[in-house]
Design brief:
The structure is a single chain. It is built from eight helices and seven strands. By secondary structure, the chain is α/β, with parallel strands linked by helices. The longest helix has 26 residues. The chain is globular, with a radius of gyration of 17 Å.
């Protein structure tokens, strides 16, 4: 019975995700679903990405997903970017319906990219499509090099992997080569970028790839 219930929940979510995707396509909006564990640096990374993309003339909006609080949305809003906060009240992920309910508060007609910052969790967000064009996983090297094989679905579902906090590498016992190898063993087509969102290292390469990917798939 539990399996049947879970299957129905996922099927219902997929139907809503397809409706979201159709709306995004009609509006000419490319959508990224950015996932990570708590504290990996998603918001700092998104801030750096927004600054680089808007310097290229691409208008960005953001949906912030958190269990509680609005601090991340306030940070994004300070950049002058349209942002909507979703508080799940305990749920460990955003789903297609939550995203759909947030869309009336965003000026879809005036943006080219919608970034969805999912709730910090390495399991649930990968299971629920929200209508995105691509999932992006962000992994902090402070989390260790064992995460790809412990949490394979997120790596398998993602189009790009951001290995963040590379500025901490001299102080950590972590094998970045192992992260790359294990990630590619799960998803050979994964695009991997080593960055420091804090100091900007690697952001240019990531944004260059992202801009090209949006052009090809919009």
């Amino acid at each position: 019975m539990k399996v049947n219930i879970v299957t129905r929940i996922l099927e219902a979510n997929e139907r809503l995700a397809e409706q979201n995707k159709a709306l995004f396509k009609e509006s000419g909006v490319f959508v990224l679903n950015i996932m990570s564990s708590p504290g990996a640096g998603k918001t700092t990374f998104i801030e750096a990405t927004i600054k680089a993309l808007e310097a290229r003339g691409l208008r960005v909006a953001v949906i912030e997903g958190d269990i509680q609080g609005t601090s991340d949305a306030e940070r994004i809003g300070a950049l002058g970017v349209p942002v909507v906060q979703i508080n799940t009240g305990g749920a460990c992920h955003l789903d297609a319906n939550m995203v759909r309910e947030a869309l009336p508060d965003l000026p879809l007609a005036g943006i080219g990219l919608l970034i969805i910052e999912n709730v910090g969790n390495l399991v649930c967000p990968a299971e629920f499509n929200v209508g995105e064009d691509a999932k992006v996983m962000l992994l902090s090297i402070a989390e260790g090099d064992d995460k790809p094989l412990k949490y394979p679905l997120m790596f398998q579902e993602s189009r790009a992997l951001i290995i963040n906090k590379m500025d901490l590498k001299p102080y950590l016992d972590v094998d970045v080569g192992k992260i790359r190898k294990d990630s590619l063993s799960l998803n050979p087509s994964l695009n991997i970028f080593e960055v420091s969102a804090r100091n900007g290292d690697g952001i240019g390469q990531w944004v260059e790839w992202l801009a090209g990917y949006i052009d090809k798939n919009s």
